[in-house]
Amino acid sequence: MCYNMENKHMFAILAREQYLIIDRMVRNMVLQERLSLEEKLRILSDAAKYDVACTSSGVERAGNGKDLGNAAACGICHSFAADGRCISLLKILYTNECVFDCKYCLNRSSNDIERATFTPEEICTLTMEFYRRNYIEGLFLSSGVLRSPNETMEKIVQTLQLLRVKYRFNGYIHCKAIPGASEDLIEAAGWFADRMSINMELPTAEGLKALAPHKTRRTILTPMRKIQLGIEESRAALGMMGGNEGAYRVTQKRLYESTGGRLGTSKEQRGTISEGTLKLLEEGGIPGKPGNEKRSEGTGAHSQRNTRSRTEQTDILREGESAAEEVLLERAGNRMLRPDKLGAARGFAAAGQSTQMIIGATGESDYQILSVAEALYQKFDLKRVFYSAFIRVNDDSALPEIPGGPPLLREHRLYQADWLLRYYGFEAEELLTEQKPNFNVFLDPKCDWALRNLEQFPVEVNRADYFTLLRVPGIGTRSAGRIVRARQNGTLRFEDLKKARSGAETGYLFYYLCRKDDVSCEDRGELHYESTAGAERPAEAVQGRFHDLSAVVFVRRCSIWTV
Amino acid sequence: MRVYLCEDSVDGIFTGVYDAWASRLGHDNVKLLAQSGEVYEPELFCEYQRVETDPEKAGKVLKTIRNRISEYAAQMLIRACCSADEEKADDIYRFIVLGLNMGRRTSDQLSDPHVMSIFEKDRQVGNEAHHYLGFLRFSRVKEGVLFAEFEPKGDITAIVAPHFADRLPDENFIICDRRRRKAAVHPAGDQWFLTEVSEELLQKMEESSDRGDEYRNLWKVFFTSIGIEERRNEKLQNNLLPKRFRSMMTEFQIYE
After folding, report:
1. Residues A408 and A453 in one domain
2. Given an 8 Å threshold on Cβ–Cβ distance, is B134 in contact with A70?
3. Does A427 reside within a domain?
4. What is the tens place of the pLDDT at every residue in A141-176?
5. DSSP labels, A69-86
């Protein structure tokens, strides 16, 4: 098995550092006993803070009337730290001891820092008591690598089991998979957790090699694939538990419609495509763009699977939980572990899988990053890809100096583009190309795209389909849906859009109501001409024509662009 | 013009709707006002009539909304009733008048000013309630009771309570709206209920709520260490967690 080979390789490297590590471990063991719970919490939350995901969304689970906890699909933010990031989960490491030496990481083995390790009981008590007081939505448990990946993963699983079975905690759990841990352990964790994640760390294989010598694409993608299979099996056998839908389904639907709705046939075909991409990702290149055929196959299989799982779901629920377990076992041909009863009621990582990439530590372009993200959505069925602006916590010559602080604006643009990928039906290649590989930091990606594609505007709000509306700057998924519903009752005028807070203020340039009393046909032609010319200086092009306040808002946005 | 003054509650407003409708004065000649106190600036040529809250009448109105408009509209209107805005009662009346003609599509009719107003109030109340699902803080009172207090703009105690009853089924807890002196009380393993809270009782609760709870301190430690100094952004923090919420939140209570 691949991960075993990786382990051997890893231990060869470790042998050289063995003395140092053992020495420090002994030192720490002495220290450990003196650490209070407060000190451990301070050290291990401080060490966990660079993990980005703190979402508690994606799974809806009502309380069972007895045990502590439930989960809300929308997610609930409980506080916001001084950096403005949401605090929703008790985000901690099991330990910040680590045998890996990733150059960007505070907890790397060669750093001489305070080390601490929780006991599983301590984590459970903290989670339960914080949850009772409504401080948190659940637990986010990650860890440094204690001695070996398997040993660490075992500790994590043990903690989750204790929390779910003994403490009967029914809230949200996000669990990190440790790269190189055995498949069985990862699967066991998946039955206890609501979300699983394993970090990509860096967008390219070369970057990973340079900065994280103990991790490889394979040790990361193998568990990721394993989790994906677990989620698929769980969906097929138990149904969409907690409303676990694919995050990429919206864009998939659009692509499916645009290819004329050809259905794919077998799951095997999908399997081969995925393996191909897996290989591509491992080899480190930008994953190739799949052709239309492949895409529609994926979508077809997706929708087929849904109907299948729904019917099976009703059957299964009738037969009770034990039957569900049997189906799981049968389906998996003993590959899957037998889930505990709680697990069967929750499903396998019902809130899906996520990952994160560090932005700006190695020299990738936004185009490369976004293409990797798109491939992960398409091929690994991820729920989220998180982007983390690189913070230089270690003084290492392999790391770049960033004088202006972490590239937060770049990170922000990537998140915006990520939303365009998942909910707006955009493809990475529409937003960026090899010729234009980076986002304009002064303009949001959608506005940027719209200015480069002015020939697609103005849009007639009363007739344009949902996905076309979504492409208008200023209109989001909610307001597009609202427009589609509201226009069934009559023709919409600009005032209506403004009242409905439809984003009309920002998008005025782009959609132009084709109504005789608003504007003559000549004017419309003129506008089109002007806005095409306006691609270069949109601010002036608009200023001359519209005196409406709403247009000024758009102008103000553009003026940054023209500077 | 006859103005119906109704109690500021779901039942009160719905009773007002019933009475205004039953008066047969015509929709243009009636107005609703959700106000329990005196009218300080009465309008000219208006006749003011106080509405006696009657749960039976309110129930009939609610049933009519559910049957003739939609369940969704009923939810919207109930939430709008919880809004702090005084004009809401009349908008609710107009919404129902329109709804009985239009049926299910009423709530999508956003170009109608009254529908829009209800839509906005529903959203406002819903957003505030959602915020408090996260921002509410319990602390332990000595007798094993979790006690939380808040000062919401809208009357949302009854909206947030079911969430916590579902989440903490085996806990005794009290969620107290300080401004309105009302509380949702949940005995462990039982149904929750709404009750009024006297000044003395509130004071007693606040005194006995356990300030020495070690988890309060642990939470503050966590809250401080989880922030990344290099990304410090107080403006963003203020946007996402407005200051009005903070006085009741453990992590912002510096002095114990």
Report:
1. no
2. no
3. no
4. 999 999 999 999 999 999 999 999 899 999 999 999
5. --B-TT----EE-TTS-E
Q: Does some domain include residue A296?
A: yes
Is residue A141 located within the same domain as residue A212? yes
* Phi (first) and psi of residue B78, to 5 degrees: -65, -40
Domain coverage including residue A466:
442-562
The answer to whether B234 contacts chain A (CB < 8 Å) is yes
Last residue of a domain, one of A397, A414, A431: A414
Q: Which two tokens stand for residue B25?
A: 């004065």
ipTM: 0.92
Same domain membership, residue A487 and residue A380 = no
- CB spacing of A79 vs B134 below 8 angstroms: yes
C-beta atoms of A65 and B169 within 8 A: yes
Domain boundaries of chain B, sorted by first residue: 2-127, 132-252
A36: contact with B, CB 8 A cutoff: no
Residues A193 and A329 in one domain: yes
Residues A470 and A396 in one domain: no
Whether A79 and chain B come into contact, CB under 8 Å, resolves to yes
> Are residue A49 and residue A127 in the same domain, yes or no?
yes
Domains in chain A, number: 2
Instruction: Kindly report the nearest CA distance between residue B123 and chain A, in angstroms.
Output: 12
List CB contacts of A3: < 8 A, sequence separation 6 or more. A180, A181, A182, A183, A218, A219, A222
Q: Residue A244 falls within a domain, yes or no?
A: yes
Report the residue of B76, B111, B112, B170 to disrupt the A interface, i.e. the one with the largest count of A CBs within 10 Å.
Answer: B111
Confidence at A93, pLDDT banded by 50, 70, 90 = very high
Q: Do A448 and B70 form a contact (C-beta atoms < 8 A)? A: no
**Burial of residue B59 (number of CB atoms within 10 Å: 0-12, 13-18, 19+):** middle
pLDDT tens by residue, A255-304: 877 766 544 433 333 333 344 444 444 444 433 333 333 333 333 333 33
Closest chain A CA to residue B120: A500
A431 inside domain? no
